[in-house]
Specification:
Blueprint: E1 6-11, E2 14-19, E3 23-29, E4 32-37, E5 41-44, H1 48-54, E6 60-64, E7 67-70, E8 74-77, E9 83-86, E10 91-93, H2 96-109
Antiparallel strand pairs: 1-2, 3-4, 3-7, 4-5, 6-7, 8-9, 9-10
Length: about 120
């Protein structure tokens, strides 16, 4: 379930509440998605498309068939634009299919900055 600024997921101990700003990125693997936060990783039995449809578009962007990213954790985009580095030093790929869309979103988000 997704609320205004948090997501509630079912796990082995019951339910966990994760605030959007705690999420670094999501990685989809088939019918499962792992949500990576600063404190923990959560495996959810939902595909990445489900999260793409429900998470706010102004905050999360799809950068690859297998990855979504919290736009606020971007530290830098490598010059060849095939990778994004997060504030925590994690390198995530940008696929060719999403490269132009990512570029447009980031240029809109960081007004006046050309990527």
């Amino acid at each position: 379930m997704i609320n205004k600024n948090k997501i509630i997921i079912r796990n082995s101990g019951g339910h966990s509440i994760i605030k959007f700003n705690e999420i670094i990125y999501l990685k989809g693997e088939g019918m499962y998605t792992t949500i990576y936060t600063n404190n923990s990783d959560y495996v959810v039995s939902r595909n990445l498309k489900c999260f793409e449809d429900k998470l706010p578009k102004y905050l999360f962007i799809r950068i690859h068939q297998s990855y979504m990213l919290n736009i606020n954790v971007i530290e830098k985009v490598l010059s060849n634009k095939s990778k994004i580095i997060t504030e925590t030093g994690i390198e995530l790929p940008i696929s060719r299919n999403y490269k132009n869309k990512v570029k447009m979103i980031l240029e809109d988000y960081y007004v006046g900055v050309r990527i």
